[in-house]
Amino acid sequence: MLLNLHSHNLMKTLLATVICWTVALLIFFPIFWMVLTSFKTEIAAISMPPQFIFEPTLDNYRRIFERTNYTRYAWNSVVVSVGSSILGMIIAVPAAYAMAFYPSPRTKGTLLWMLSTKMLPPVGVLIPIYLLFRDLSLLDTRLGLTMIFMLMNLPIMVWMIYTYFREIPPEILEASRMDGANTREEILKVVVPMSKGGLAASFLLALILSWNEAFWSLNLTASRAATLTAFIASYSNPEGLFWARLSAASTLAVAPILIFGWLSMKQLVRGLTFGAVK
Amino acid sequence: MTQSPPLSEPTRAVRKVHKPSLGDRLAEQIPRLVVSPTMLIAVVFIYGFMIWTVVLSFSTSRILPRYEFIGWQNYQRLFGNERWMVALTNLGIYGVLFVVICLAIGLLLAILLDQKIRAEGFLRTVYLYPMALSFIVTGTVWKWLLNPSVGIQRFGRELGFENFRFDWLVSSDMSIYTVVIAAVWQSSGFVMALFLAGLRGVDDSIIKAAQIDGASRITVYTRIIIPSLRPVFFSAIIMLAHIAIKSFDLALALTGGGPGYSSDLPAIFMYQFSFTRGQMGVGAASAVIMLMGVMAILIPYLYSELRVKKDDR
């Protein structure tokens, strides 16, 4: 009886394993196919049956670098994401520190209201921001985009850093205060070193979110400050029939995410679920 | 891993030593001073801009903003516009299907992964992978897979099914469903992560007790485990619903709202009317309707979160 039950469970686990791997293949296929296609010629890309074995070519990549301003878009993406993430950290760390270590009865409410702004649709503030940017001549500038990306990610960064700070035992802070540390020393010598991993994760989350952001980049930039997502969006229409080249452009745009994403998936989930999944 | 909804852990009190000197009183104010710029930016700025949008929605603004009050005219024009009604209907179809399918797939994957499968960590990362990509790239990749002349339809025909049809992308009746497919692909792994965390938090002793009483595995899941995941369902629905209402880039990259305007979503409509067509007033009105939609989801959520906090004390 016991043995029977055991083999029954084994069957079920086997079935679950098979389903899980099938789903994993299905989910991974579009990404895999995009990367694979980017190394094909245009003819090989649309040939049927689909080719898994072929002579890889770097032509698509070469053409993207020759014929478009790819490097400018990529540089814009780097500058804007890194800039907005650093700026966000500078503002978010002190705020999270104050909320985590000096909680008042209203702290939770304040945090929730801040987070709620992250959930609201950006179209709700698009026209005012557009008008303001036009009047301040920030349209199509990297500075303007950096500020918007920072604003967009600030609530989630404060929240995330807050949850990491709360993991530091308050006794340690009390001890350092007893030793006569002032606030600045307390932050720089105790809090920051103790939550290095968490701060790095928050920074990375902000980086990935900014890198992927398309709404603001499409609406507030034209050609000078446009980021890679805007590049893909514009590339995909007129060149829609050149699938191999489009795949190469998309692969280039997601390559950093594919690498960093693999390393930081746990932190990404924690941030996107507002700390529900640790 | 926790089964409680986000944001609900009890507030931890920090003991303070009271020494009523001037410097200390100043120091006590520092936290508030430090938080205020963030507060100002996040709340006052964003909510202030929303009020500005509301004002514009009652104004005569077209290509340029003009602040002459015209009452509900923009809203009347908005709801008299067939394209807006299509966009709203699409959001309804897309929103409901997206949330329901993501919940179903996410829960199923979480339960399967919870069966002590080997390489669980690896599988989990694979499931989550699409979420790290930008919607623009997701849209581009799926645009190709769903294109009848190069993608899945052609592959099906090549396999010998001459009459195989999968041309939703170019059919105005079905194009909105392609947005659902791509969005589900992108987000179901994320819902899986939420549910898996919830499953790991379910109290083992209750399950053991039920099994001793002779409950089958299915009964244990349907009667005990799934009902106890209610808070997870709640937060997953909130997350998915607001992603659905905000959807813009995915539909733009995948269908561009087409064919025609058959797969328009409110966010695309708003963008088109405000900027491409120079109807800022109508665009603002549509933005206000969307804001109200999100508020309708958000306010009960915030309310329940704040109430949980009080109960914890």
UniProtKB/TrEMBL annotation, chain A:
It is found in: Cell membrane. The keyword Cell membrane applies. It is a multi-pass membrane protein. Residues 74-264 form the ABC transmembrane type-1 domain. It comes from the Bacteria. The chain crosses the membrane at residues 14-36, 73-99, 111-133, 145-165, 187-209, 242-263. It holds the Pfam family BPD_transp_1. Signal peptide: none annotated. One of its GO terms (biological process) is transmembrane transport. The keyword Ubl conjugation does not apply. Keywords: Cell membrane, Membrane, Transmembrane, Transmembrane helix, Transport. One of its GO terms (cellular component) is plasma membrane. Its main location: membrane. Belongs to the binding-protein-dependent transport system permease family. MalFG subfamily. This is Carbohydrate ABC transporter permease. It comes from Natronospirillum operosum. The lineage of its organism: Bacteria, Pseudomonadati, Pseudomonadota, Gammaproteobacteria, Oceanospirillales.
From TrEMBL, chain B:
GO terms for cellular component: plasma membrane. Residues 88-303 form the ABC transmembrane type-1 domain. The chain crosses the membrane at residues 33-55, 91-113, 125-145, 174-199, 220-245, 280-303. Keywords: Cell membrane, Membrane, Transmembrane, Transmembrane helix, Transport. It comes from the Bacteria. It is a multi-pass membrane protein. GO terms for biological process: transmembrane transport. It is found in: Cell membrane. Belongs to the binding-protein-dependent transport system permease family. This is Sugar ABC transporter permease. The lineage of its organism: Bacteria, Pseudomonadati, Pseudomonadota, Gammaproteobacteria, Oceanospirillales.
